[in-house]
Every structure is written in C-alpha cells, then in structure tokens.
Amino acid sequence: MPAFEPYSVWAPIAHDVRLRVSSGESPEGSFEGPTDGDTQTIQLHRDAQRSGWWTCDTIAQPGDRYGYEVFDGTAWSKPLPDPRTTSQPDGVHGRSQVTDPDFEWSDQLWTGRGLAGQVIYELHVGTFTPEGTFAGVVEKLDYLLELGVTTIELMPVQPFGGERNWGYDGVDWFAVQESYGGVQGLKELVDAAHNKGIGVIMDVVYNHFGADGNYNGFFGPYTAGGSTGWGEVVNISTHGSDEVRRFILDSACQWLDEFHIDGLRLDAVHSLDDRGAFSIMEQIQFEADEVEARTGIPRVIIAESDLNDPRLITPTANGGYGLAGQWVDDIHHCLHTVVSGENHAYYEDFGTIELLADTLRHGFRFRNNWSGFRGRTHGRELDLSTTPPWQLVTYTTTHDQTGNRARGDRPSQNLTPAQQVLKAAVIYFAPFTPMLFMGEEYGALTPFPFFCSHTDDELNRLTREGRFREFARSGWEPHEVPDPSAPETFESAKLDWEFTDEQKAIFDAYSTLLQLRRDLELGRSDLRDLQVEHGPNWLTMGYDDVVLAVNFSSTEISLPVGGDLVYSFTSPTVTESSTTLDEWGFAIIAR
Questions:
Q1: If we measure between CA atoms, which residue out of 6, 90, 87 comes closest to residue 50?
Q2: Which residues are known catalytic residues?
C-alpha cells in the first residue's frame, strides 16, 4: 500500500470488504487472537472511478499494520495481507505494513549500464554469504569488482513462506523478504553497488504464485486455472486480466523506479499464458523505457525462455517485443555435454563438438529443427544481421543447471580445474554477454540443491515427493535427493569463502579471462564475424587478430594455429605456425 494515499484494494469478486488497521506504534504480529485497542475496523466502499476497486477515506501512514477482510456472500475471511503489500515483517501470513518510499540515495553519479559489455554475476542472497542478507552482499562488492563483475543479478527476493527458499515461491510481488533485510536493506545494497560502479538486476517471477501465503484468490481472478508445473497459471489473458497485467506492470515499475534497479530478469516467460495482441513482455519493456526516459539511466529487461523465439529480442518496429536480451541454454548444454559426457534428459540433443561449433556460430542450437527430447521441431533462426550477440546471455552454469540436479552438485564438484577454466574460456571469449553463477569463479565445492521451508508441513511433503518423482524420470534414486525442507539442505548451499590454493588459482584464471575479454574487446557486435573451426576433439574460435584454441580431450593435440601466446591455464607450446595443447588445455593466441 503506497504511503499517504487512501487505503484501497482490487477485489472484484468480493461482496464486501473492510480494513483492519493499527498505527505503527501498535504491537507487531498477526490479527489472530485478541488485538490491541488501537486496531480499527473500517468499512470500505466501491470505488466509483475504478471498477472492482474498494476504497475509504483513511490515509495510509508509514508504519501502519493492516489487513483486509473479505465477505464472499456467506462468511467473512480472516484479515488477509494486501495483494500489493510492500512489506510483510511477520512473514507471508502476517499483517502488511505501509512503507515510506523515501530513501536517502547517494547514487546521483550513477549513469547506468546497458546490456552490451556487461559481466553478470548471479547470486542467491541467503546463501551467498554467512549472514545471508543484503548487507552481506554489500561486504562482497569489492571482491566482485576485483573479479571483473559489472552487474549483479539477485535471485528473487520477494517474500516466501518460511526463512529458506530459492525465491521462486514468492507471493507478494511488491515486497522484499524481511530476513534478507527488507525494503531498507535492498535499497542500501543498490545504493552501495551503484557507488562502486556495479549495476543490479533483479530476477522476478510473474508466471505463478507460490503456494504458501498466496491469498490473492480471495480478492480477484489473479489466476486462470491450469498449471505451469510450479503453480496455477497467472491470469493475463482472460476475464479481469487487465488489472492483473497492471498488477505486474506496477510491480516492475516499482523496482525500476523507486528501488533504482537497473534491470529485470523475467523468469520462464514460456510459461506465461499470453494471448494478448500486446505481449506482457512488450508492456514491461515499455515501462522500462518510460523510467529510462524520465531518469536518463538505462533499464534492461532480460527474459528466460525455452522457446528459441527471436521475437523476444527483436525490436518492436520489426514485430518483436523489444527486450534487451534473453538467456540461452543451448550454448550451456553444448559445452556441458562435451566436457562432462552427460547425455541424459534434455542433454540428449547435444554432446558433440560439431553442435557446439554450430551453436556458437548461430546463437541457437534449435532453429526450426528436430529435437529428440521434445519429439518435435523447435526454435527459429536469429537474424544475425540485426541481432548483436550481446543480446544473448550465456554461462557455464546457472542456479537452475546446478540446482535442478538430484544432489545440486556443481560442475566444480565433478570437473578438474583445467576443465572448469576451459569452459569459462569458451564463454568469456565468445561475443555473447557472459554470466557467472556465484562460487563458480573459484571452483566452489558446496552444492546448490533446491531448498524451501514452507510453513505448511503438507506443502513440504508434497514438494519433497514431487522432487523425488521429477528426478526418478532422469534416473536418480530418492536417496540421492536431499530433503528440500531440511535446514541442513539450505546450510549445505552456503558458500565457503576460505579458498584452497587450487581455488585461488581458479579465481585468478577467471579474473584474468574477464580482464582479457575487456582488453581484447571480445564482446564484438556481429556474430557473423566469428570464425569457428572444429575437429573430433578440438575447436578454434576467433577473429583475424586473436583466436582461442581448445582441446576437448585427455590427450595432447597439435593444431595448425600459431602466433603469440596471450594466456593459458595450462602449459601449451605456441609457435608462429602451430599450437600444441595439453589435456583439456586452451590457448588464447594473438595472430
């Protein structure tokens, strides 16, 4: 609820609505049981100007604790959190709190960052540091600068049930998880990052609501039936969807404007039931453009999509949605399978250096061609004459690619240091926008399994059994899957910041590769300029002035590529006309 405005709520299905509110000086907690004498019950009336809205004359004051009671024609509900709550100090089942939007910003010199030229670092606030807070992230900003990161991407920070969650079970899309530091903590992190020259992107989930603490159905048609696999489909295409779309757009605008967030990563947009002539993604981009025009600071929108659909990043003038970028799993899958040898589940469509070379040249592996895993043709070709490669975000791993494994084991728990750094060299040499997942830069040996702490034991049971069934289809046994709700599953995911000598070497390699990416200007603007050659166990990728030579095998190989050695993690021999690479070795060569 915005401060200094009359209390109001969209509740088109309600027969009656009343407000329960107490001042900020009243005791904290829920409305369960006896309430203090300061609590008022205020009757709301239908808003004559806005269909489906209820309002009153009482002005929301910062610190007020409140909830709405909804009459469905038969009975009154208990006091419920506001669907647009900006703060839930007592969790998703407690009272909402009015927040003060004012904040003493000190980032006036921040000019922002477009997507081109960025190095993104994805992190989970709760496990990135021992503190598990925004303040803990602030303490690591200098470390990230040393590494070469330009932008951090926060996994979702909206409130969820309990204290431990990946964040994709969020229910209050305008609020911030209190245990991380709440509204104040997030603003302090953004302010501190900007003063260090680091941008902040937020991962937001608009395709489903979490099951724990979602009371929106008492108020209106926020969902439309059907399942995304994670929750009921959000209603952006059927009766009442205009207000649900506005709900999403206002949420996005709040982060970009009030919180000074530099961009949003839209989770799993392929799960949106979006049948409007104007895509919700296009509308979100429009909101971002409005904020950018007003502030002069770039705002980027990045989609996660499994569709290989160029429309996402095609300009609106050419019939697209105009987003700045999208995640591309295809390059990850090609690289992962070639190095690890895994070929189960969706990896069956990858696994050869030929496919890796083809995907590096085209951005997408699937371009209206057959996918054995899907049992159908998939994707559409990018127009490389109008699509700069920086619009594609690539990576050696992500929270999904690590966490959606039975044990949540990282590549660094299964690969040698040479193999880890080799993968990084391919990603950072390529002209796409690179992203790291927290800890990979030093070969972290802590897993990142899925974890949650729903306040309902039955939800925890269903989540646990659902994970068992999901992994059984990929050949994993139940005993290999950690209990998502167990505290030790969450604790196992916390990064260990005491580096071994081997981890220090990996970190140095990562930071060197990222520095070379800048020095050699490898984020080039036309993918058609990238020259890629390959053999049964090797690949070269580069330009007339610089090339990366890679050995994807455990035996020494020689390639007819020569010049001056710029960098390698191993011990190659480079002459004017040839290069000999040791096992799982690579060389960056100036020619």
A1: 6
A2: 267, 304
Amino acid identity of 534?
H
Interval 320-360: pLDDT, tens? 999 999 999 999 999 999 999 999 889 999 999 999 999 99
Distances, alpha carbon 324 to alpha carbons 41, 114, 214, 320, 541, in Å:
47, 8, 31, 11, 25
> How far is the C-alpha of 298 from the C-alpha of 341, rounded, in Å?
41
The torsion angles phi and psi of 100, rounded to 5 degrees, stand at -90, 120
Q: Residue 291 corresponds to which amino acid?
A: V
Same CATH topology for 6-97 and 529-590: the answer is yes
pLDDT of residue 35 exceeding 50, the answer is no
Asked if residues 183 and 195 have their Cβ atoms less than 8 Å apart, the reply is: no
Over residues 275-291, the pLDDT tens digits come to 999 999 999 999 999 99
Report the 10 Å Cβ neighbour count for 477.
Answer: 10
Burial class (CB in 10 A: 0-12, 13-18, 19+), 48: exposed
Question: Cα dist. 559→430, 472, 535, 545 in Å?
Answer: 20, 43, 10, 17
Contacts of 149 (CB under 8 A, 6+ apart): 119, 120, 121, 198, 436, 514
How many alpha carbons lie under 13 Å from residue 198 in its C-beta half-sphere? Answer: 28
**Position 497 pLDDT exceeds 70:** yes
Eight-class DSSP state of 390: G
Pick among 2.60.40.10, 1.25.40.10, 3.90.1720.10, 3.20.20.70: CATH of 6-97: 2.60.40.10
Q: What is the DSSP letter of 236?
A: S
E-state strands within 98-192: 120-123, 151-154
Containing 6, the helix (H) or strand (E) segment is: strand 6-10
User: What are 47-59's pLDDT values in tens digits?
Assistant: 999 999 999 999 9
Residue 375: partners with Cβ closer than 8 Å, 6 or more residues away: none
Helix (H, G, I), strand (E, B) or coil at 202: strand
DSSP secondary structure string for all residues of 350-366: ---HHHHHHHHHHS-S-
Give the tokens for residue 185: 């903590």
Which of the listed CATH numbers 3.40.1260.10, 3.30.499.10, 3.20.20.80, 3.10.180.10 matches domain 140-518? 3.20.20.80
CATH fold of 529-590 reads Immunoglobulin-like (2.60.40)
Whether 378 contacts 369, CB under 8 Å: yes
Whether the predicted model's global pTM rises above the 0.85 cut: yes
Q: What is d(CA 113, CA 297) in angstroms, rounded to the nearest whole number? A: 8
Helices 501-519 and 417-429 pack at an angle, to 10 degrees, of: 10
